[in-house]
Structures are given as C-alpha cells and as structure tokens.
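Sanity check

After download, print the first record. It should look like this:
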Amino acid sequence: MKKVVLIILIAFASQVVNAQLFSKERVRNLQNFDKKRLSYGYILGFNSYNFNFDYTADEFDDDIIVQNDVITGFNVGLLGNLRINDYLDLRLEPLVTFSQRNLEFTDPDIGEEFRMREVRSTYIHIPLLLKVSTKRLNNFKPFIVGGLSTSINLSSNEDNPDDNQDGQFRMTTNTSYFELGFGIDFYLHYFKFTPSIRGIFASSDELVRDDDEFSPYTSGIDKLRTQGVFINFTFQ
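Expected structure tokens:
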C-alpha cells in the first residue's frame, strides 16, 4: 500500500511540475496566499512505523533475532503555519496516528518456534518543524522540512502489571524524535495542496522490560527505538 501511494504521489507531482514548467499559460493562483502571517490547514496521510533493535552483547545469539512485520497505518491532523519570511516557515502539525507492528520472537530453548506479539499503537504526535522553501516557480514551490517532535502512545501498556509472560508487550508512553523530509506546495485555484514525505527517528529507548531478567522477549534487547515514514497530504 505504501509503495502504491508513493508511486501515485510521484506521478502526480511529475505531471503538475511538467505542466507548470512547459505550459505557455502560466496563471498564478493564490498570489497572496503566502503573505499571511498565520495560516491553517488539515492533514490526511499514511504511516509506516518500524522498530530498530540494538541487541545486548553476549546474551543474544546472532541467529536469534526479532522479526518485524510492518503494516501501513494512517494519520489525521491539523496544521498551524507561522510565516517568518518568503523562504522560512515554522510549522506545528499535531497528528493522531494509528499503526500496527507484528513482532516474532524466537525462543532460545525451542529454536524454530516463534511467539507473536501484535503491537497496535495510537499516538498523539506533535512535531515542531522548520520549513525551508525555494522561490515559488509559477504554481509550485519545493521545500525541505526538519525538526523535533514528541508523542504520547495511548496504547503503550507502560503501567500494565502484566508483561510478555502474560501476553502483554509494553512500551514507554512518551517518546521524542528527530524528523526530516521534503515536499512540494501546489497552488491550485481554490486552495494550496501539499504532498510530502518525512522520516521520523526516535531518540530514546521505548522498551519496558519484563520483570524476569532472563525473559526471552526482552533480556536480549539493549534498545528499541521507533523509525517511521509519513506520507502526508496537506490542504490549506
């Protein structure tokens, strides 16, 4: 699903950019839109959350790994944009994101058998981003964006007294991230449409370890951090 959306996004962008660059008729839409000090919008999109595992030395054999099956989720949110100048904007993009990751743990004592954990997460994701744009070219304007974010995992199970021995996978509730991405503003007749793609990278360990220090689920993991990709469509 993520690949299909990305292909559609690239194809749409290519068609519009080609039309804007080579069409003889170049009517500028929404000429004064970017002059506003404050502007708002809403966001719809897709996400692909993944886990990056760092294993402890000595305790986790090379043949014993955690398989991570990623399922595409979706995002909904709002945009608040503060114009600094013609090339810089400060953006607040609070999102609610829904995701699922399926983890398969090998059992060191049994070998070929696996144990599955479905990690379903609902995040309140709050990024503060700096948008750096090029000069507007007719009716489109490319940009890069980066910044910091924090999230609240409403499905973390952090305070759940049960752990993996009782079928419960636990993560920390609060996580911080770095973010980096790019996109294109398209100035249409009635609104500005912005497709973008952005990577997120957790900076903190999110694993809540089992009470048993020799747990086959958590004893061999040194750090567990989220990595993800957002494909968002913004309407202003």
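If your output differs, re-run the checksum step. Summary of this record's structure: Residues 20 and 138 are 7 Å apart (CA to CA).
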